[in-house]
Amino acid sequence: MKWLKNNSLSITLLVLFLFSIVGQIVTGHEEHNQEMQQEGGVAISMSDYLTSGHFFQSTFENWESEFLQMALFVVLTMFLYQKGSSESKDPEKQEEVDREPDANKKDAPWPVRKGGLILAIYKHSLCYTLFLLFILSFVLHWYGSLKDYNEEEALKGLPQETAMQYLHNSRLWFESFQNWQSEFLSVFAIVVLSIFLRQKGSPQSKPVDAPNFETGE
Fold it and tell me: Residue 115 gets which letter from DSSP?
């Protein structure tokens, strides 16, 4: 029970993700088959759908925007501030996250104890990983969107595009930008709203009685 309590947030989010991805697969499979039949194509099996361009495009265009949002937020909050926001460092004082790591600290992670290049990478490992996941998601989105586009063009008897040609196609970038803008808006909202609004019990909020000008959680 203690393990469940200590990991309840990640477990719940994982369960919600699995529920959502299953729902996406089931409904996406049905939608894709309807579109194909309307265009004169044939319905495909669930296993074929999981390797289809439609599934790759719809899945990874969303992952791409999420990882981009998180990566940029991690980096921008290193040196940009919003006074009064629970999502910002305080511009008027040194924060604990800015101090240099202490190799002698009890239970310090092994990269801290190792030092050198390992520590230099570890200091920024979160943003490195998030940007890598963004790039990987973008490539898979590009692949899926291209495959889906060419399937549609083939049904219409139109010529297909290569990967490099499709990189200049407005459809690919429309799919990306429509997701990016929503992610940046949601981050902007939590940064600004947390100045004036509170949520008792949430670490993303300041204490209910904290003044609006107080920065940080």
Answer: -
Q: How many helices (H) and strands (E) does the chain have?
A: 9, 0
C-alpha 25/C-alpha 20 separation (Å) is 9
Residue with tokens 């309307």: 38
Q: What is the pLDDT of residue 39?
A: 85
Output the pLDDT for position 140.
Answer: 98
CB 204 within 8 A of CB 194: yes
8 A C-beta contact, residue 172 and residue 148: no
**What is the rounded distance in angstroms from the CA atom of residue 217 to the CA atom of residue 214?**
9
* Ranges under pLDDT 50 in the chain: none
162: left (phi over 0), alpha (psi -120 to 50) or beta: beta
Q: Rounded distance, CA 84 to CA 72, Å?
A: 20
Give one DSSP letter per residue of 37-82, joined into a string. HHTT-----HHHHTTSHHHHHHHHHHHHHHHHHHHHHHHHHHH---
pLDDT tens-digit series, residues 128-151: 999 999 999 999 999 999 999 999
- Model pTM? 0.92
Closest residue by Cα to residue 175 from 150, 155, 149, 151: 149
Q: Alpha carbon of 39 to those of 24, 33, 52, 144, 153: distances in Å?
A: 22, 10, 16, 19, 10
Q: Which of 38, 41, 58, 39 is nearest to 50 (CA)?
A: 58
